[in-house]
Amino acid sequence: MRKVLQYLLKRPLTWMGNKLAASPKKEVVFKSLTTLYTSSREAKNENIKVMEVACSKDRFIIFSDQHKGNKSWADDFKGSETNYVAALNYYYKQGYSFINLGDSEELWKFKAGEILPANERSFAAESAFQPDRYYKTFGNHDIIWKNKLDVSFLLKKYFQMPLPVHEGIVLKCSHGDISFDIFLTHGHQGDMMSDNNAFSTWIVAHIWMPLQRFLRLNINAPSKDFSLRNNHNKMMHEWSSERTNLILVTGHTHQPVFASGKYYNHPSNKIDVKGPQQDVKPSYFNTGCCCYDDGDITGIEIADGFIRLIKWYDEEVFSKRMVLEEKEIGELLKDLSNG
Questions:
Q1: Which residue has the higher pLDDT, 254 or 214?
Q2: CA angle 230, 234, 239 (to 5 degrees)
Q3: pTM recorded for the entire structure
């Protein structure tokens, strides 16, 4: 039966996925990001979390795109679990807050009942940051967490309830006499299958995703295509570069980006933008992911007046932290205002 349905449905479902998700239009992405960011000014908006922070002393670690699975051959996260847990244990002891920026659970490929019991070590490391240092957002692969009932029913064994899950987070910061925002969201905005109203979100989470799992089709994965990754990162950079005193941090593409690629000549971490590198506005950051083939994970640290792109990797039997790129926030803000 599955093969028959694959034959009949693969082409139309792939077309629909590409049309609605993998190739978002710039105007749709811009409108969605603007709507979400603007909503941070509304009182009691549960969709976005707003926090006043001191970037000179508060510490945050931001990871995204773990894509936790069921520990089978198709689980992209299982090779990275050791580094991930070691990293979270380190940041917990160092007094960091943890922002989990979406696609934490791979619910396109696996059922929640398969994923949750297979990842108790990771959930324990995450929930240790509760109640005051854990912040969770949803992405397109774990959009089910947009629904409060699913969160309370499925995650109550692993986290303290209630567990708010947001679409975006805004850190309101200041440096000297400059006030600025760090806007964090998964980055799937413009994905019409996931960035939509409550009813269609329920359809995606409870009908589309189970259908894709049954058919064993993975048709919503921009991280697999370099051109799609780069195009998406370019849109995020363009949107953020049009704002004043704003830093945008996303995940979604699995491609790390530091300050729009302005300061370092890492080809894999750069955005293909027009004009000289020195003229790029350093407004966009991407965490990368926690499911690389070699078990490495990448993330963004905001700590001690610096913002850093970091990697955790295996060295013999130990997990090690490496700073890939970093910039003092005051210097970054100067270039941000001059860009």
A1: 254
A2: 155
A3: 0.87
